[in-house]
Amino acid sequence: DPNNDGFLCVTCTAPVNIAVIKYWGKRNEKLILPTNSSLSVTLGQDELRAKTSVAVSSDFNEDKMWLNGKEQSIENPRIQNVLKEVRRRARKRLSDSENEADLLLKHVHIVSENNFPTAAGLASSAAGYACLVYSLAKLYGVQGEISDIARQGSGSACRSIYGGYVAWQKGKADDGTDSYAVQIAPETHWPEMRALILVVSDQKKDVGSTEGMQTTISTSELMQQRVQGIDKKMKLMTQAIKEKDFPTFAKLTMQDSNQFHAVCLDTYPPVFYMTDVSRQIIQLVHSINDSTGHIKVAYTFDAGPNACLYLLEKDVPLVVSVVQHYFPLSTMHITGPAVSEYTLTS
Ligand code: 2P0
């Protein structure tokens, strides 16, 4: 009832981010501290985003949450972790003002929806938790760094707090205070950059990321080698982005995706996220690059078979027509780097 004086509601949207240097593996499961740093591009709002409304009212008797129209258990430990942390920070800030502290006594209702398939390896948890934490922070007036709270919902979510090109610094501290996201360059920095998401399957993945990376950490020797090379790759990738050096950006992106999936194969029992169609897309991208003599397009695959192709605006017509020719049944979303946004509705 929006006419109720005690009703306050905030609605936010947050886009997905697709990593070009992948996060895979935790050194602390509870705090979600990663084994290695990672770097991603936050994509456009219209195509792939989560939208979350959070509301408090004196009429609510308990905290509740709905995802894509279905009620979910609010007891989910990750939801509880972010809710507790936002309220803890709010309590610190609000302690002087009794009126505002009243806000913390009220229960919260959370309503979230994605405009794309959930848990199909399209970073739905990243957008979802970034959006939840952003909305809660606005509702409770929490200021300052919040990507470390989003991280406690889902690791990759910390990167969707910022737009453009974003690094998640793994940090060294045991308490996670130095493990948060940093914007490398804003969305306006490289206006020609485009991402083409090729949805080849909207099925939920068999092995979730959380479980898959645990098995990798306990079984893969190749993972140790990967970890040793990451800091150098982070530096080279950051430099390529700053200098808008597309061929270097693209090559590093493809190599990191391939190494991540090699590590999945080296996991015992192995984890397969790519399918035959994914591998056909890889071959197609290399054919386009080889036939033109330039690296015009890069692929990257997350914990699922769907491809994200990075390319420059001028090459979109060529790449789209080739992809449509070979994969006429796939769904394509074309977007570019974007900002995270919020709107205060009431
Ligand atoms: C990434 N992925 O950097 C990598 C690439 C999947 C492959 O982050 O356990 O859903 O919630 O921290 O964030 C997927 O992992 O895992 C992921 P949790 P998350 O985007």
Automatic annotation (TrEMBL):
GO BP field: cholesterol biosynthetic process; isopentenyl diphosphate biosynthetic process, mevalonate pathway
This enzyme's EC code(s): 4.1.1.33
Keywords: ATP-binding, Cholesterol biosynthesis, Cholesterol metabolism, Coiled coil, Lipid biosynthesis, Lipid metabolism, Lyase, Nucleotide-binding, Steroid biosynthesis, Steroid metabolism, Sterol biosynthesis, Sterol metabolism
Keyword Coiled coil attached: yes
Catalysed reaction equations from the record: (R)-5-diphosphomevalonate + ATP = isopentenyl diphosphate + ADP + phosphate + CO2
Keyword Lipid biosynthesis recorded: yes
Pathway field: Steroid biosynthesis; cholesterol biosynthesis
Annotated coiled-coil segments of the chain: 80-107
Ranges where the Mvd1 C-terminal domain occurs: 195-346
Molecular-function annotations in GO: ATP binding; diphosphomevalonate decarboxylase activity
Superkingdom, natural source: Eukaryota
Listed NCBIfam families: mevDPdecarb
Sequence similarity: Belongs to the diphosphomevalonate decarboxylase family.
Function, in words: Catalyzes the ATP dependent decarboxylation of (R)-5-diphosphomevalonate to form isopentenyl diphosphate (IPP). Functions in the mevalonate (MVA) pathway leading to isopentenyl diphosphate (IPP), a key precursor for the biosynthesis of isoprenoids and sterol synthesis.
Designated name of the protein: Diphosphomevalonate decarboxylase
